[in-house]
Amino acid sequence: MVVNGLSVTRSANAVDDIIPGVYIDLLATNLNSPADIRITRDTAAIKENLQAAVTAYNDAILDMGILTGERTDDEADLYSGSLNGDSAVRRIKSDLREMFMGNSSTPGASMTAFRDLGLDLDRTGVMSLDATKLDTALANNFDDVVMLF
To answer: Best label site of 16, 34, 113, 130, fewest CB within 10 Å?
Structure first.
């Protein structure tokens, strides 16, 4: 078969490794014969990347807490408290929170912010992702999820 000018040969009629998310089932060996094409959404990658963003956010907030906390007497600890009282760190933390929890500049019809996908901050500032809420959003409002990003 030829896909976008690329000649492809496979030992089976099912081809799923040429275009990510596209499954092609060749129904006949004749040129110009019909093919069954199924396109799937890779929601697993979206979930994985969003969870990675949550982890990165939590790690950054933790690091900022160390940098703005009290200085320790440990000679090997060069960074604790090194930014204590620095207002720029508070502003960065605030901007990060707003980026994740504020309304999107491109809201969808039924979703306006990442919190609609299951992102949440607890009272201590730790971010979490509700996988059930995210699965529901991806299944029922995929276009809105795309708009948020």
So the answer is: 34
Choose between 33 and 96: higher pLDDT.
96
Indicate whether this model's pTM tops 0.90: no
Is the separation of the CB atoms in 113 and 97 below 8 Å?
no
d(CA 88, CA 63): 14
Element (H, E) at 138: helix 131-140
Our measurement of the distance from residue 24's CA atom to the centroid of its chain's CA atoms, rounded to an integer in Å, reads 27
Residues in CB range of 42: below 8 A, 6 or more apart: 20, 21
Task: Quote the mean pLDDT of the chain.
Answer: 87
Nearest CA to 67 out of 54, 55, 83 is that of 83
Q: Is the pLDDT of residue 29 over 70?
A: no
Q: Which two tokens stand for residue 76?
A: 């090997």
